[in-house]
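Quick question, first post here. What does this chain look like in 3D?
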Amino acid sequence: MATAEVAVVSPSSLNTDTTPVPESAGTAAATAATSSATTAAAAVAAVARTGSEATVSKPTMATKLLSLSGVFAVHKPKGPTSAELLNRLKEKLLAEAGMPSPEWTKRKKQPLKIGHGGTLDSAAGGVLVVGIGRGTKMLTSLLTGSKRYIAIGELGKATDTLDSTGKVTEEKPYDKITQEDIEGILQKFTGNIMQVPPLYCALKKDGQRLSSLMKRGKVVEAKPARPVTVYSISLQNFQPPLFTLDVECGGGFYIRSLVSDIGKELSSCASVLELTRTKQGPFTLEEHALPEDKWTIDDIAQSLDQCASLLPEELALKKSKPEESNEQVLSCEYITLNETEENDDVIKTF
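> Answer (accepted):
Ran it through. Tokens below.
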């Protein structure tokens, strides 16, 4: 870590004119000398203060980072996976705290724990809930809560991934489908229903993700239909072949499967063109999700305080206390979301 250089000005280096001056000019000369000394002293103090701040800022921020604990939300853009986004967040926080550097990695100190709750597809964007510190233990409870999505589906086109990232596997006419047709079948997809997960998903077979097996050309059988819950679903817009849905659902639900099933119900086919998660539990995209330019220690600390009031009382009480030592050094323990065959919303720490 670079050390700050501080310029020190000694009293002897200040030039003072001791030559007698006329009485009429004495007051002005004295004032000038006093002003020069004051200015120099202020400059020395400012330089020293700046150097001190530069020296202690990283350890101070490291201590503050270690003290963060709770649950907050970030805005995930389309493109990166949820795990990749979490790594980006982790790297930004560690860099702000002065990590990593050789002197910090020599000794193992208290780790920074961070994880996400509820995977978003790489092609999807929106709210991604993040736990930090002991907040990672709250994620499992939050996963069972409701989620809300805005999905744009495209009629007449089916893909192997059930979204726009896959290969087109089927095309069917859609010109006779009306807005009333779509609205008329949505009731069939409301409440407690059975849903078959997509083949391209994070569910596992023999310890390997189905999506990974599919990408390697392996033959994969579809998982059996499982019970899921849709709290509400409405058609927001219809401009053939595109239709926009507002869906609120429970955990383990796949919007891609919903759109595909709607296409089949309409005697056509359909796939997801765009998908945005607008809410997860109490966290909304507009009010709570931090954009990347707000991924700083101070902004996250403020967000944690604001979000604490949104959590159920039994979870809020588990918020951890700040670390006592101001000399803690960071390493990073990465927590990710590991999907099982029964449920793709399970948190595992390692």
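The chain has a mean pLDDT of 75.
The CA atoms of residues 76 and 85 lie 7 Å apart.
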